[in-house]
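Lecture 7 notes: from sequence to structure.
We start with the chain below.
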Amino acid sequence: MERQPNLITSISLFIVLITATAFSNASDGFFYVTPQFTITHLSFDRELVPEGLDRTSNAIGAQVSAGYQTPFWVVAEVGYGYAENIEALGSTFDNHEIGEYRYALGVAIPLGNNVRLVPKAGRIRYRVTAEEGQFLNAGSEQGTTIENNEHYLQLDLEIRLSDLVGLDLSYVTANTHFGDIDAARIGVQFEF
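Predicted structure tokens for the same chain:
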């Protein structure tokens, strides 16, 4: 029974998106691929992370998404991303990393000839790993790995640079069972 609300939510979202875009001016549909650089902030609930391990982390990484925008402005997208806090001293300090697979539906809202605002909602499958570093740690290093599926929200600002290339600025947020994921992304969108 737990899966039924997720199916109902997904179907409801799809119906709302179709209804909201049905009366908009149609354009040509297109496929796109968007590689992005990401800065991700992870914050962990205290009870899920071993004592002594950092509860927050800023990580950098990359992600790529591919999707299709229909002639009626509905967007369907899938993606993969990875981010890790980078340190110059090897295993000295605490390490956090996240890998994610995701899919989303959204609607493109034209703000002019060359700018679109694209709110999206979807599901993310993530794996977060947190490992304690050796600095000021007298005992053995502890760690935790958390995997789950959650809902997430994304807001993209797409700025057309030419007929086939655009700048993509994104904000992604998810309130998960381990804490929060917030990410700012910048990339280039290639349309075909």
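Points to note: Strands lie at 30-44, 56-69, 74-84, 95-107, 109-110, 115-131, 143-160, 165-175, 179-191. The two ends are 41 Å apart (CA to CA).
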